[in-house]
Amino acid sequence: MPPMIRNALELLAALALMAVLFSVAFLLSTTTPQIHIGWFFGGAGLVYSMLVLFYLNR
Predict the structure, then answer these.
(1) Contact 21, 49 (CB under 8 A)
(2) CA angle centred on 39, ends 38 and 40, rounded to 5°
(3) With contact defined as beta carbons under 8 Å apart, do 48 and 19 qualify?
(4) Other beta carbons less than 10 A from residue 9's beta carbon
(5) CA-based nearest residue to 55, from 4, 23, 9, 5
(6) pLDDT tens digits for the chain (58 residues)?
(7) Which of 5, 10, 15, 40 has its CA 20 to 30 Å from the CA of residue 48?
(8) ∠ CA 22-47-12 to the nearest 5 degrees?
């Protein structure tokens, strides 16, 4: 597979992962209003960062 196409697919995968994580964070924050929404989005950002760093380290 050409590198340009592979890079484009990796970018789309990263964006899809970000969308899924933040959607889950939003759903969790609406179902548990006693916990501040920032904790869920901070956790999603941390998980996203760790997964991207893990992928880049391979």
Answers:
(1) no
(2) 90
(3) no
(4) 11
(5) 9
(6) 898 998 899 989 999 999 999 999 999 999 998 989 899 999 999 999 999 888 888 7
(7) 5
(8) 60
